[in-house]
Amino acid sequence: MYKDIPEARGTPIPVKTPINFKARKQSLENSNRSAMKKLIIASCVSFVFIVVQVIGGYLANSIAIFTDSAHLASDIIGFAISIISLKIAQRPATKSLSYGYHRSEVIGTLVSVIFIWGLTIWLVYEATLRILDTEAEVIGHIMLFVAVLGLCFNLIQMKILHSGDGHYHLGGDMNDSHDHSHGHGHHHDNGPKKSGHSKVKGEESKNLKEGLIVDNENQATRDAEHHGHHHHEEETTNINITSAYLHVLGDMLMSVGVVIASIIIYIEPSWKIADPLCTYLFSVIICFTTIPVFKECINVLLEATPTSIDVEQLEQDILDCQGVEEVHDFHVWAISVSKYSMSVHIKSDTPLKSLSQVTDLCRRQYKLFHTTIQVESSGDNKHQFICENDLHD
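Predicted structure:
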């Protein structure tokens, strides 16, 4: 492939210590198993308490408790969707689905959020009817007892979902454990040229030492390993666990509200309007806890740039690699919330060295393991014409 490139016949390309892909794959599998186990346990706990809440809500004639139980029921449905999507996402890729089923996780979470919003609208409607019904009575002491039980169950659920990981960040990533890096070499005679979506590195790039990678290999490797370990702690997360955790957090806030409302009604029964008012408050809480998850899912489906990656810094780092003169056709997107991909065209006077260094940069510093890097150098006017005129889009 590189027989016409002088560099390919002579200078060896320095290679750093290989990344342990097997360990990353095992880490991802362990994360998925742990997530599924937590979701199953949380679902069982939720189901038990739904029965308690339905009975208690009926006896207390409390719309707030029914709201809490309905939201808890939506959590179980969300957990079930998450468990199913985790199973589906483990299926291997096919010819028709070359990326596999990873986005089933995103679709499942999106369906769960939309269902919760629909349920919330219905509960707001019921709360409005309760306000208009002046004859309805709420039994304060039963409502208070059930509300306190609900708070205890919510704390148990939070402990279940939070145990073991300690990190719940939206947009966190555990990228694909397989290395899918592709490099392509091309020749161009024309010099670098700025366009609407390209950057050209200044003259200082030509002053980089040939032995830059080798001279700093040990320190760079140590820095990369430290950086990788730090990010591994932050990135070992799962959108399903994040979504479930937020649902339970919303439930806990709702339970606190029910406790407060039940105390008010217990002390002064004529203030029964506190019961439906809780539902209005809960609806706002539900929206605030689910909108971030909804946005994250939409960003993945639209193949937006992951918020956890500074693409401007990544582009500059690529430009700083040895021999790279220009970067264009630069794309970073998410296959799922936890798996990112990148494609880029780089122009270089040392194609093989640049390809090696850019690939290593993406793997070690940015944890991008599915990359397609097209290297363009002098002598290939065809590919330069295509790139300059965006004929590949």
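Summary: The CA atoms of residues 55 and 331 lie 54 Å apart.
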